[in-house]
Amino acid sequence: MKVEANGHQIIELFEQFSPKNLAMEGDPGGLQIGRLNQKVKKVMTALDVLEEVVDEAVKEGVNLIIAHHPIIYRPLKTIQTDVSSGRIIAKLIQHDIAVYVAHTNLDVADGGVNDWLAQQLKLTNTKVLVPTTEDRLKKLIVFSPESHAEQVRKAMTEAGAGQAGDYSHCSFTSTGTGRFMPAEGSDPYIGSVNELEEVKETRIETILFESIEKEVIQAMLKAHPYEEVAYDVFEESRKGPKLGLGRVGTLDKKMTLNEFADFAKIQFNVPALRYVGDPAASIQKVAVLGGTGNKYMKAAKFSGADVYVTGDVDYHTAHDAAALGLCIVDPGHNIEKVMKNGTAEEMKRRCEEKGYDVEFVASSIHTDPFSFK
Ligand SMILES: [Zn+2]
């Protein structure tokens, strides 16, 4: 049985995958246009919300666009509908299409943009290139009446709690007796005002990452029958995985830089790319970073990579890399288009698990401003 979903429910699932708090400081994101409190039947994923993309969304009957690049980057001074930038906003509002943006948080997310890029290059043993955050591990303990223990446990694990390495849905339960006396003004689920109550309760323990703490606790409170829920959250001394920008990994077999450049062109489906280095240089270890990667060139060198694959490489960074003996392949910023299918597939899977009646489509509009001749 499929159930209807609204924008909030879909974004809740999306943020379990790509939490907002992974974004770099000052990065705009989240809901930028429209509203989430409406039924959503169709979602479109897009790299850039250009006017053609909005027209496509209107034609496709889309209710929500999940985009990578912010539609509003700097504060708007005017919205004039005789120019494209204003028309985009007007059309979106007219057709009640919401735009939700996940920029650097989707780059950092485990399984996000940088992992999709690394997958395109068939890299294995991938690690984070530039750590930006370390997810903290926490322990959550909640007491529930036995009758609702399974419901509460299920709500927490479905919100992403209980992930340990390759294992999911990890929890531990024990039973005991809970005691409480409802005071005047309370509305107890069990017991009566001013009478000491004893209830068979289940203690449920699980672990969670700080990045999803809010969602897990919300889900737990929603599933719990009590007015005042007894729960504890402790910080674990064990650290969670390192998260960050870019990935570094290895190719199955060595290639020359010339061969690797051809390979990257095919894998990223670009008509041309720029490269720096000796075409005969040997390439096996590869660093890749979606977007504009000049700032992280040295991190790529220090990671031991033979080549750094990134976009918008500038003249002086290219010189500096050459001096350091680091090859560069710049297939352009637009290779981040991998996020369109990546996000659509990830969300399709998550919504299917929930039984949501929602369709995902990737925008088919090519948004690279550059042509080659
Ligand atoms: Zn980008």
| Strand arrangement, major sheet | 6-7-5-8-10-11-12-9
Mean pLDDT: 95
Radius of gyration: 24 Å
Beta percentage is 25-35%
Amino- and carboxy-terminal Cα gap = 52 Å
Please, could you describe this protein's structure?
This protein is globular. The chain has 373 residues and is α/β, with parallel strands linked by helices. It has helices at residues 7-17, 51-60, 84-94, 104-108, 113-120, 149-158, 213-223, 257-268, 297-302, 315-324, 338-354, and strands at 30-33, 42-46, 64-67, 98-101, 124-145, 172-180, 197-209, 231-256, 274-276, 282-292, 307-311, 327-330, 359-362. The model has no long low-confidence stretch (mean pLDDT 95). Strands 6-7-5-8-10-11-12-9 form an 8-stranded mixed sheet, with helices on both faces. Strands 1-4-3-2-13 form a 5-stranded mixed sheet, with helices on both faces. α2 (51-60) runs parallel beside α3. Bound molecules: zinc ion (ZN). The site of zinc ion has 4 residues, from loops.
Secondary-structure blueprint:
Layout (H helix, E strand, L loop, with lengths): L6 H11 L12 E4 L8 E5 L4 H10 L3 E4 L16 H11 L3 E4 L2 H5 L4 H8 L3 E22 L3 H10 L13 E9 L16 E13 L3 H11 L7 E26 H12 L5 E3 L5 E11 L4 H6 L4 E5 L3 H10 L2 E4 L7 H17 L4 E4 L11
Parallel strand pairs: 2-3, 2-13, 3-4, 10-11, 11-12
Antiparallel strand pairs: 1-4, 5-7, 5-8, 6-7, 8-10, 9-12
Helix pairs in contact: 1-11, 2-3, 6-7
The site of zinc ion has 4 residues, from loops.
